[in-house]
Amino acid sequence: MRKLVIFGAGPIGRMLAHVFYREFQTVFVDVNQSLIETINSRREFGMSILGENTQEVTVRNIIAISGKDEKSVCSHIKDADLVLTAVGMQSIPYIAPVLARALEYRVEKRGNIPLFIVACENATEHNSSFLKEKIFENLEDSNKALITRNLFAPDCMIDRVSILPGDLELEDDPLRVNVEEYFQLCIKKTNLDFPVIPVGVNIVEDLESVKKQKLFTVNATHALIAYYGFHFGYMYIHEAIEDTRVRSLVNGVLNEIEFVLARYGIKSDDQKKFADNVLMRFKNKNLNDPILRVARDPMRKAKNGERFMMPALIALENGRSPAYLASGLAALYLYKNPEDAGSLQLTHDIEINGFENTIKQYSSLDKGSELYKLIEPPYYLGTVR
Known about the structure:
Elements: E1 2-7, H1 11-20, E2 24-30, H2 33-42, E3 44-50, E4 55-60, E5 62-66, H3 70-79, E6 82-85, H4 92-110, E7 115-119, H5 128-137, H6 141-150, E8 151-152, E9 156-159, E10 162-163, H7 167-172, E11 177-180, E12 184-188, E13 201-204, H8 207-231, H9 237-240, H10 244-261, H11 268-282, H12 291-295, H13 298-301, H14 309-317, H15 323-334, H16 341-363, H17 370-381
Parallel strand pairs: 1-2, 1-6, 2-5, 3-11, 6-7, 7-8, 12-13
Antiparallel strand pairs: 3-4, 9-12, 10-11
């Protein structure tokens, strides 16, 4: 049986193991010793796929090793047919050194055997190519040419909501993962065929347009629903989206997004179908997607290059006023959740430095800019439209 090595044994890593488990034995690499021991004692985990009808799946043939055990990592990478990561972009520099050692060991023992390494990290820019860059920073110069010929690290885009199971479910199976039915993993095409293409995995020529469509349509509307849903007192995304006030805002954002995505060659009819599917996903009552989960980390989501700022600026550059995207940013800056560290920090910064300086710090917007002028009125009203 072929071997899949996944760096990161958390919920996203385990969800990826499910995608490939019919074709591969999975070896997880993690630093959480308790998690490693649990995987090795159970050798399987359950997954609930939450759609109109819930599907129960058991993923077997899994083991785990410590990322601190370089010898073991090298041994498994040597024999691997595919390597994935699900550690978060911030952890990429920390796994790169052991991956570099493992690749050097692989070419020493096996020579010219190609290997795909795909960083399944949701980044607005590059993920796998960033990982490759960090790996090469840790390689011996004498090994770089051979590894360059045999290492394929195509960027990707992953789209699936994963929800933490309830306490009772975790008591029964501490490795359980709950996910929505929808799944898409788009991988940029290379000049070498990908080793296997399960359902939901797509090899694409134009990854950039796919990523923009996902970031602007899925992430922006998801965040908008979360921030306004919080403002209106809802707990779950599927509750908030049924509120006519929220739906009106979502429809406004989707119209602006459609205009922006046309600049990337995405046709209006195709985008409308994509957006309709996204809204159906958000209405999924079985998922019980918590608003607080979606709203977390507002400081990152406020940045230039993120889900609100990027499409808003593109709209302005092309003569369209992004009033609804601006109202989403206003709601983000109004988000005050005492249980969210990011929200507390953002609120503190506004209280100490003022809104004008805080939005300049996080969104790189000056007070005189067109977008600032659109954000300011709904922010100071302290409410939604």
